[in-house]
Amino acid sequence: MSTARTENPMILGLSNQNGQLRGPVKPAGAPGGGGGGPQQQLLLNQVKGTINNGNSQSAPTTNAVIKPGDDWKKNLKLPPKDTRMRTSDVTATKGNEFEDYCLKRELLMGIFEMGWEKPSPIQEESIPIALSGRDILARAKNGTGKSGAYLIPLLERIDLKRDCVQAVVIVPTRELALQVSQICIQVSKRMGGVKVMATTGGTNLRDDILRLDETVHVIIATPGRILDLIKKGVAKVNQVQMIVLDEADKLLSQDFMAMMEEILGFLSKQRQILLYSATFPISVQKFMNAYLSKPYEINLMEELTLKGVTQYYAYVTERQKVHCLNTLFSRLQINQSIIFCNSSQRVELLAKKISQLGYSCFYIHAKMRQEHRNRVFHDFRNGLCRNLVCTDLFTRGIDIQAVNVVINFDFPKLGETYLHRIGRSGRFGHLGLAINLITYDDRFNLKGIEEQLGTEIKPIPGIIDKSLYVAEFHSESGEELKP
């Protein structure tokens, strides 16, 4: 059996709307605990982090005094080595090392203590150009290290002697803002005083105003909130030297374009703009022509889907979907799974069904209260539940490396949506599984998305080879994953 289950699942929290439908979670490897062996338990330990409710400050510094001539690498507190096999999405590098970029020693220490051993292809291409101050337009697959590609040069260029906001990272969702701020805090923890602040809609504006009365060097924000703070004169961005748009295709869509243009109007003309995304529609090209100065273009998208994600479809009727999902739970070796629905209402209905079947389940969607969304994101990321049902709120940049299975309970209509959904598994060159429940009405969308993305979604076999998606069946071998 693949997932923790109980005969009497209970709802935790203040109300039924907090997104956590669950029962006692059995230990990984125990009967009913998902068959997770020591490799997967190690993985869960590796991805545990802390997410707070918006205002992030620098992590406590752990600097030891390093004298000239000392071997500073002896002072590193490295996480357990990740021995999972990785695909060429992240291994096809030029052989550069992080030390080749002349970064501050304290920043290098934070990088290595994150478990980042060598730059990925997008980091190799991006870091030296960003350090030179040039604008960048970068396309790379989901899960290949884009956050590190811009956070490393951003932190290298922070001047701690200047008491002002020097860099802004804008992301489309609150969860992604919290995630990026945590990465930024962890990478900079040895630097002795970099102040990082996350600010998003749905949180107390007064708290943000009080926070900005103190020193802040880096702001990571959603567009509406940072624009509000700028207009109120609270967030002073006139000395910002770098602005990053992560998931730029979404930020430059019709939903956000006017806000982004207004935000840029408050910045210095000498600011550096970095755009990162997996897909770049025509709106991005127009924005680039209007606001970027001779941008360096990076395109690592020879193919759109991650090499490590195996894609299957199961042809079902609408009434058979829950039964099919129950069968998948019982047969797959799930470490953690994300299950996508096309509406908030269907998310809650499916989460209730899953809990009635006896499986622990969280759910998250945009109509929930922000504190409940934060709690669900935090607890799922920390491995407290194996299954998360969600809308497309959770498709943008969310990096939970323990996720090895993504299920499209409702098949999306757009290839871009499909690409971002399945990119939640197979992160950073590892292996994952994407299973799509296809009804008669979905058949043309399935064909269209295959053609648009240049990929093949195969019929689901009776038995799925565990070596395609279970970490403990692989060790680091340097071999390319065979199709």
TrEMBL record:
Gene3D superfamilies reported in the protein's UniProt record: P-loop containing nucleotide triphosphate hydrolases
Main location: cytoplasm
Domain Helicase C-terminal: 308-468
Molecular function GO terms recorded: ATP binding; hydrolase activity; RNA binding; RNA helicase activity
Compositional bias per record (Basic and acidic residues), positions renumbered to this chain: 68-87
Superkingdom of origin organism: Eukaryota
EC number: 3.6.4.13
Motif (Q motif): 96-124
Domain Helicase ATP-binding, first and last residues per copy: 127-298
Subcellular location: Cytoplasm, P-body
This protein's UniProt keywords: ATP-binding, Cytoplasm, Helicase, Hydrolase, Nucleotide-binding, RNA-binding
Reactions listed under catalytic activity: ATP + H2O = ADP + phosphate + H(+)
Region (Disordered), start-end ranges: 1-40, 52-87
Pfam families: DEAD, Helicase_C
Cited InterPro entries: DEAD/DEAH_box_helicase_dom, Helicase_ATP-bd, Helicase_C-like, P-loop_NTPase, RNA-helicase_DEAD-box_CS, RNA_helicase_DEAD_Q_motif
GO CC term, one of those recorded: P-body
Chain ranges of the DEAD-box RNA helicase Q domain: 96-124
Family: Belongs to the DEAD box helicase family. DDX6/DHH1 subfamily.
UniProt-listed PANTHER family: DEAD-BOX ATP-DEPENDENT RNA HELICASE 50
Protein's UniProt name: RNA helicase
Lineage of producing organism: Eukaryota, Metazoa, Chordata, Craniata, Vertebrata
